[in-house]
Amino acid sequence: MTATQTEPWTTARHPLARLLRAIAAGQDPEPDGKWARVSPWIPTVQAVVAFPGHTIMAVSYDLTDDQLADLGVDGHGGAFTARTVTAMAGPTGWVGVPQVLFCALGTGAGQSGTLTARSDLGRAPCVGVARRTLQDIQVLGSAVGESTDVVILGRGVAGVREIGVYPSTATATVTHLATMVHAALDSVPENEVVLFSVDTYDARMITAATQAGFRAVGGVQLFSTRPEHKL
């Protein structure tokens, strides 16, 4: 087995992707209280990606560094405040729900024995929502039975592989959610870096992600100055 197969890897080339690959390898950012600026990974989405004591601003250059600092951007999560995010999005932009950013490594060979491509689930509302922030989406579902649970694979934060898990019922148990997350990881090649962004209020999914082997590494706040992509 080659080095690229035994170490965390990703095909994404965004500067933040390199940092996420290092985090997946156990090298967390230095909690230096600083923030850094990078370009957005896609033109329709901007983001605050915060780690303990260090923040990455994937934002356009409509605002200068000094203006961002005046709005409260710092290395300690100041960019997550409502005042800062709404100012960056502008009066007609959209602001997403704050999310916990989880990281793990794929455990499969690119296929899962329990999941398969499900074109019949492509019109599910969750897929439409995912298309606003993810690229190169694959819609997966149960390979057996009539389950309408949806698992989405796509390119998310920094162009890194990201999963989305959407049970067919709002009362799905943590055990069921964790099983779905496990199946998603089995659908990703071994040792490929995988992200999972979970809404901060979704306690069951946060627990399920942890049980399935994901590690919480920071937080994400997506936004856009483009009203046509309103969430």
Present the secondary structure layout.
Elements: H1 3-6, H2 15-24, E1 34-38, E2 46-51, E3 54-58, H3 65-70, H4 82-89, E4 94-95, E5 99-105, E6 115-117, H5 125-130, E7 135-142, E8 150-155, E9 161-166, H6 174-186, E10 193-199, H7 203-211, E11 215-224
Parallel strand pairs: 1-3, 9-10
Antiparallel strand pairs: 2-3, 2-11, 4-11, 5-10, 5-11, 6-7, 7-8, 8-9
Short structural description:
Strands 1, 2, 3, 4, 5, 6, 7, 8, 9, 10 and 11 form an eleven-stranded mixed beta sheet that branches. By secondary structure, the chain is α+β, with helices and mostly antiparallel strands.
Gyration radius over CA: 17 Å
Distance between the termini: 43 Å
Determine the strand fraction and express it as a percent band.
Answer: 25-35%
Helix content: 10-25%
Please state the average pLDDT score.
Answer: 94
Class by SSE composition: alpha+beta
- Count of distinct strands: 11
- Count of alpha/pi helices: 7
Description of the structure:
The chain is of the alpha+beta class and 231 residues long. The protein is 24% helix and 28% strand. It has seven helices and eleven strands. Strands 1, 2, 3, 4, 5, 6, 7, 8, 9, 10 and 11 form an eleven-stranded mixed beta sheet that branches. Strand 9 (161-166), helix 6 and strand 10 (193-199) form a beta-alpha-beta unit. The radius of gyration is 17 Å and the shape is globular. The mean pLDDT is 94.
